Amino acid sequence: MKDVSYVRTEMLPEQDPPASTSGVIGWMRQNLFDGISNSILTLASLAFIYWVLSHFIPWFWSPTWSGGSLNQCREIVAEAGKESGACWGVINERWPQILYGFYPQELRWRPNLAFALMFVALIPILFSMISRRMNWFLLALVLFVATLFVGSGWLLIVAQIALVAAMVWTGWQIVTINGADRAEQIKGGAKRLPNPLFFTATYVFLMPWLLWGGSIWAPIATALGFAVGWLAYRLLSPIIGGLGALIVAIIAPVIWWLFLVGPVAAGINAILPIELEPVQSRYFGGLLLSITIGVVAIAVSLPLGIILALGRQSDLLLVKWMSVGFIEFIRGVPLITLLFVASFLLNVFMPPGTNFDIILRVIIMATLFSAAYIAEVVRGGLAALPKGQYEAADALGLDYWKAQRLIIMPQALKISIPGIVSTFIGLFKDTTLVSIIGLLDPIGLSNSIRADVNWNGIVWELYGFIALLFFIFTFSMSRYSMYLERRLRTDHR
Predict the structure, then answer these.
(1) Most buried among 153, 256, 372, 383, using CB within 10 Å?
(2) Which is nearest to 29 in space by CA: 37, 20, 40?
(3) What residue numbers bound the domain in which 254 lies?
(4) CA-to-CA distance for 202 and 58, rounded, in angstroms?
């Protein structure tokens, strides 16, 4: 039997050290120069990027902010010894118009306040790391800062009192340290505060009043429509059953909004007039118009899409057929067709004398369009859940709505987050289509700016700047969806 040696008796020749697999060099070897073809593509890409930047940066870095016309910009570029350069004077001169459209300059504090309050209203929905105390304090702070710019007299005094009350209520106090006032939180302050979602629900009716003005009783009367529906359901549910009461609870607010909101608001306003200066819709434009349409359509289409998805899976044939018919019809029609319907035909189907605001008509159609796509995305999330989740809800003795609210829908929405956000991003970008029906969104305003003799010939500066604004909003939405997916991830790896 031959002995096998397990000990090497010969020295191996020296070899080069292995290539680094960590750090920057390791990452480049693995991702950029992993083989001959990959290295060639990397070098070609770097050459192309260099060529683009070598032409773009000198054009972009142009001292033309003071230019009052395209000719002046060209003169400034020639004096700087450059062959070409961007004309940023158009952005400097028309920046307010791109943001606000033709909204009266002395009233622009109202959209500023509306969108500042919008972020405060969205905080308890979008984020969980901000406490109730801080949320109410931010609300009081925003209102106080707004009065510093537009308030005087009793309005400023009321805002200051509200800020101090909010600080005390939320557990903050003003202390003097080294002769300077500073706010710090009191230990053992207020223990329980109202849910900030109360303000979020109120903001839905506050925002239109700030933007369009008029009597404050109009949005309050509109909000009462939901109370009418809830009251009808509570009173009729023991009499005609849950389904009949639900149908009446849906019809009653619609009747209230169509026929009673106007007379009720006018009657109360005649007794106690509280109103802001009205602003007609034709003065809306620019980014203000796009954000108004996009935010309202996004906020309303999500719950409506969830209801349609549940209706499509309902065992009630009438509800199922209506949901399927609505979804398939809306998804089979281009959005631009719905916008033309909103612009020219929607008033025809309303009672005589009804004057539907053009922006409100566009919001309705954009909401319905988005809701149909959201319904399909949510239905996909519902279909992805295993049958055991439904059986577990039945085993716990939960009724249909409790099972959907506590078990089924949270999991389905978590699965559907990428599709929902993608639909929202598409809807926000599609708000630029309103320029086809005569509304001056940023694209429509750009066309009118380019029609000015001073800026005739401007292309890249205007459209590039508008593209940057839309990219900021859509990229933020995308990053938030990724954050939400990480926060809701419950798997263990």
Answers:
(1) 372
(2) 20
(3) 214-276
(4) 50
